[in-house]
Amino acid sequence: MNLPTSETLILELIDHALHITINRPKVRNAMSLQMVHELMSVFESIKDNRTIRAVVIRGADGHFCAGGDIKDMSNARAAVSKADESSDPFFTLNREFGRMINQVNHAPQVVIAVLEGAVLGGGFGLACVSDVAIAAESAKFGLPETGLGIIPAQIAPFVVTRIGLTQARRLALLGARFGGVEAERLGIVHYVCSSEESINQQLEEVLSQVKRCAPEANAITKELILSVGNNELESVLDNAAQSFSECVKGNEGQEGMMAFMQKRQPNWA
């Protein structure tokens, strides 16, 4: 398939997974507005593609993402004096990041984050919308925004959803920094590894598990899980029953049950 061209991301399609490497190592892979738009373009291009079953997001040169790019913030500040009073570049910059992170959150593929080095601010938020998170023990997590006199505006709702209100308040209001073991305890990550070799082994194991699951069933299941708490329960259950019926009657359901009875792997595995 044709993937969008990108200056800030390295894209590589390997088997059933798209590997996205955030590639701005000189700034510890901090997020610029250009990177935000390029990530949005990539996820938009694959949203209906069920041959891509997983998306792996990783950072170049040992860092995941150090948050927002201060240079972009400075450029936005300079633009204020040139813009008319109805324009607010700070709003635009921040809100675009929120749109991107919500898009990643709702991607039909299994989103896997490999977290090394700096996992700060916006990078922390991106980690919180992954389906599976693998972290280096030495990774450094944190929400440094309030120490800079700003707020974690777009990521706060996703952090609360990930780890709960009580812990989110503590991390955001203290600007606390912590490592991979604490991130696992808080429920931010699922696996903590002591070396790059063990990270890669864990990633391969997760990708093999993804391959055993039917892609459309995974996409529908993810949509169902994300609807819990956001829609009225009876409506969630009605929609789930409708989706279940369609799955049973669909190609994946028929193939899955036939494979089970015939004691073989289904065709998607």
What is the fold's blueprint, element by element?
Layout: E1 9-14, E2 17-22, H1 33-46, E3 54-59, H2 70-82, H3 89-105, E4 110-115, E5 118-120, H4 122-127, E6 132-136, E7 140-142, H5 156-163, H6 165-174, E8 177-178, H7 180-186, E9 191-193, H8 196-211, H9 215-227, H10 233-249, H11 251-261
Parallel strand pairs: 2-3, 3-4, 4-6, 5-7, 6-9
Antiparallel strand pairs: 1-2, 7-8
Features:
2 domains, 2-enoyl-CoA Hydratase, Chain A, domain 1, alpha/beta, three-stranded mixed beta sheet, 269 residues, 11 helices
Note down, in words, how this protein is organized.
This protein is an alpha/beta fold and 269 residues long. The protein folds into 2 domains: 9-211, 2-enoyl-CoA Hydratase, Chain A, domain 1 (Alpha-Beta Complex), CATH 3.90.226; 215-261. It is 49% helix and 15% strand. The chain has 11 helices and 9 strands. The chain has helices at 33-46, 70-82, 89-105, 122-127, 156-163, 165-174, 180-186, 196-211, 215-227, 233-249, 251-261; strands at residues 9-14, 17-22, 54-59, 110-115, 118-120, 132-136, 140-142, 177-178, 191-193. A 6-stranded mixed β-sheet has the order 1-2-3-4-6-9, sandwiched between helices. A 3-stranded mixed β-sheet has the order 5-7-8. Strand 1 and strand 2 (17-22) form a beta hairpin. It starts with 8 loop residues before the first strand and ends in an 8-residue tail after the last helix. 35% of the residues are buried.
Low-confidence stretches: none
Helical residues, percent: 40-55%
Distance between the amino and carboxyl termini: 21 Å
**Multimeric organization:** single chain
